[in-house]
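Fold this: LysR family transcriptional regulator
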Amino acid sequence: MSTAHFDPSHTDWNLIRGFVAVVEHGSLTRAAEQLGLSQPTLSRQIAELELAVGAALFERVARGLKLTSAGDSLVDPARHMMTAARVLGMAAASQDHGLTGTVRLTASEIVSAFVLPSILAELAQRHPEIQIELVASNQISNLLEREADIAIRMIRPTQSALIARHIADWPMGFYVHTSYLAHAASPVPLTATDDVQKLARYRWIGYDQSDQLIAGFRAAGMPIERSFFAFRSDNHLVNWQALLAGVGIGIGMQWLAAKHPDLISVMTEQPLPKLPVWLTTHRELKSSKRIRTVFDFLAASLADIVIE
């Protein structure tokens, strides 16, 4: 079937949005999760768009979906449509001078689980008319494309269209639970001067795919490999719970570790970079009273954590 009669003005906008999401995530499953849809629903949307276009847009490969030539030709125009729609949405949001409505936040898993609940509970008491959507993810959401209204990030954003406020620098440390030390093969306290061979006698908690910790150890003069970490997960919440369960030695924020008296700080002489906390929103969204209210409340509340 020819694509000459395809008219996007008569096409459901959700079909275009679903198409772009699948392109960006490479699979129906991940795209559906990002959109908050079921996989069958997104699959039907792609099939409907293919019917409207008159050609297959994806083909299945071993690691997911791959664009066909027809699909590839639609990517840039579809992204332009998405960008224009988001700009329109931000322009409309900036004219919203009321408090009633929704603010979408994004933050890391640890911040979402251990920092924000009490803060958002107080926000709800003060402003019950404001609804909150929270995206708990270590992936950096794109504020320019309205994936979130406000982001709590651990790196400074560089886009000129964003407003960024540096809130704090959270100290980090190495910790181990007393239950692990009770059964450790080498119960001798660790120090920053210990060599890798001695450190390797202990079980360490690290990342699976990310090489962030490996790079950090190597920068400190400890040439380790991924196998140095006997327990590996890229999910920060899982690693934190593993640390509390006594699986091994891990890294955590000092203020969070202080809430657990059974955690012992080790290798205190080894300096660790502090975790910067940035609060970010789009310049246009800052003119929204609702978003400005949440932004300022988060800024004050997050700053208080440092002095607890």
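The first helix runs from residue 13 to 25. The mean pLDDT is 83.
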